[in-house]
Design goal:
283 residues; two-stranded antiparallel sheet; globular; 23% strand
Length: 283
């Protein structure tokens, strides 16, 4: 296990979430096998993020941008990485101790797109001192994504790919062209990546065992603060694949009178009001 583990670069992208990043780094510090390096792409945080006191190298690159250019930021992180194995972590995820070693072992033997399980924490967990066993006891899995207790499960539905915690070889990432930067801002870039992997006959694999903890944060449901990004990227996706992504959100937008939407078209009727956006905030 150890001979391959040091070949893994951990990649994350961030905007204004220094507290979440600190806990991600703390998880990496506790890993049974440390990463070869941590690559952070800062998407224009108001206060540039910093990472200190790590036994592994850390590089922070800054994108001067507006909004959340998720596809471009992930590609920038991959270009900066120096390892043969890439492990992407969303900034609000804390890796379990065994994640790096387990992911590296899988990718040493499988040419796949490998997702690890994410367990969701409540508001007060992992804000100060924490132990992994306690977080396991107080967290829960995603209801729509079932992972094996161990080993790998092949998933045929490419729409179940998620970018929170996934691994892929550098060679395969490059051959797929990375994330499509035609998707600007928030939404659908990860679903598109999953679809392109399937088209290239790269299996989507759910990995049992160690994964990551998702740190609590306020969310908008639906994410009306990204309304125009979602519409733009949904149309881009539909033009490529002939089907709509994010259909639950689009359905909610239609029910609220924000859009007209059917199998063939998506027409914006109006922007959400400030009150509608505020009312969508879920604590």
């Amino acid at each position: 296990m150890a001979q391959n583990a040091m070949s893994t670069s951990v990649l994350t992208i961030v905007r204004n979430r220094a507290g979440h990043l600190a806990q991600l780094v703390e998880g990496l510090r506790r890993s049974y096998v440390p990463p070869h390096e941590l690559i952070v792409v800062d998407m224009g945080s108001a206060v540039p993020v910093r990472v200190e006191d790590t036994a592994f190298p850390c590089r922070i690159d800054r994108l001067d941008c507006e909004g959340l250019p998720l596809a471009a930021a992930r590609n920038a992180a991959a270009r900066a990485a120096t390892s043969d194995t890439l492990l992407f972590l969303d900034v609000d995820c804390i890796p379990m101790r065994g994640l790096i070693a387990a992911m590296t072992d899988v990718l040493a033997n499988e040419d796949g797109l490998v997702c690890a399980q994410v367990r969701y924490l409540g508001r007060d967990d992992a804000r100060s001192d924490w132990e992994e066993a306690d977080l396991l006891a107080r967290s829960s899995g995603h209801p729509a994504r079932r992972f094996p207790a161990s080993g790998l499960r092949r998933i045929e539905n490419a729409g179940l790919f998620w970018s929170l915690v996934f691994g892929i070889s550098r060679e395969r990432y490059t051959s797929l062209g990375g994330f499509d930067e035609a998707f600007t801002g928030y939404g659908a870039e990860d679903t598109d990546f999953g679809f392109r992997a399937k088209t290239a006959h790269v299996p989507l694999l759910f990995m049992g065992g160690p994964g990551a903890f998702h740190q609590h944060h306020d969310v908008f449901e639906p994410p009306l603060q990204h309304f125009n990004d979602i519409l733009r990227n949904a149309r881009t996706f539909h033009d490529k694949w002939g089907t709509w992504p994010m259909d639950g959100w689009l359905s909610t937008f239609a029910q609220s009178g924000l859009v007209e939407w059917d199998d063939r078209s998506l027409i914006k009727l109006r922007d959400p009001t400030r009150k509608e956006i505020a009312d969508a905030l879920v604590d």
